[in-house]
């Protein structure tokens, strides 16, 4: 086990005796991410831009956690796994390694909007704040990331 970063996450890299053997859970994550991606299109068609941003983040999180499980890296209980992706890039599938930095960037960007796009704040109403361009960018990034992860996991 390796202690990771200032937040004290512990991960099990490949070959260290990790117990992530439930392959059906990995496939479940990526399958459900695909179902949610279809729902994202409905939200977009209804101009529910804040919900596209929020749900997109959840899809990104499911995809990246599926990728980590597939790579036999222990999945942390955090919404943004970008630091783990960067630290353990060499343990990701070879086809994914060149995109690891961009995957991490998307994860970090979308994590920032997670709560704000759902709950808002006293001075921000999500449905008024998030615009079409925000949702289009979230949808584009989510689709790209899903495609990368699905291809790596399902072959």
Structural class: mainly alpha
Main beta sheet: strand number and arrangement? 2 strands, antiparallel
What's the arrangement of strands in the largest beta sheet? Answer: 1-2
Order of helices and strands: EEHHHHHHH
| Net shape | globular
Q: Low-confidence spans: pLDDT under 50, at least 5 residues?
A: 1-19
Helix content: 55-70%
Average pLDDT metric: 87
- What's the tally of helices? 7
- By DSSP, the count of extended strands is 2
Ends distance: 28 Å
Radius of gyration: 16 Å
Give the percentage of residues in beta strands. under 5%
Explain briefly what this protein structure is.
This protein is mainly alpha-helical and 155 residues long. It has seven helices and two strands; from the N terminus they run ββααααααα.
Give the secondary structure arrangement, pairings included.
Elements: E1 2-4, E2 9-11, H1 23-45, H2 49-70, H3 82-87, H4 100-112, H5 114-119, H6 126-129, H7 132-154
């Amino acid at each position: 086990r390796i202690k990771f970063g200032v937040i004290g996450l512990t991960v099990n890299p490949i070959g260290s005796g990790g117990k992530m053997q439930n392959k059906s859970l990995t496939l479940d994550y990526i399958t459900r991410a695909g179902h949610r991606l279809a729902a994202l299109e409905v939200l977009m068609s209804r101009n529910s831009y804040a919900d596209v941003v929020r749900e997109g983040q959840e899809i990104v999180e499911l995809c990246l956690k599926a990728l980590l499980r597939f790579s036999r890296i222990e999945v942390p209980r955090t919404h943004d796994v970008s630091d783990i992706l960067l630290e353990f890039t060499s343990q990701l599938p070879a086809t994914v390694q060149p995109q690891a930095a961009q995957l991490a960037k998307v994860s970090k960007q979308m994590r920032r909007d997670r709560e704000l796009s759902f709950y808002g704040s006293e001075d921000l109403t999500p449905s008024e704040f998030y615009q079409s361009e925000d949702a289009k960018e979230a949808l584009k990034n989510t689709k790209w990331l899903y495609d990368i992860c699905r291809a790596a996991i399902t072959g």
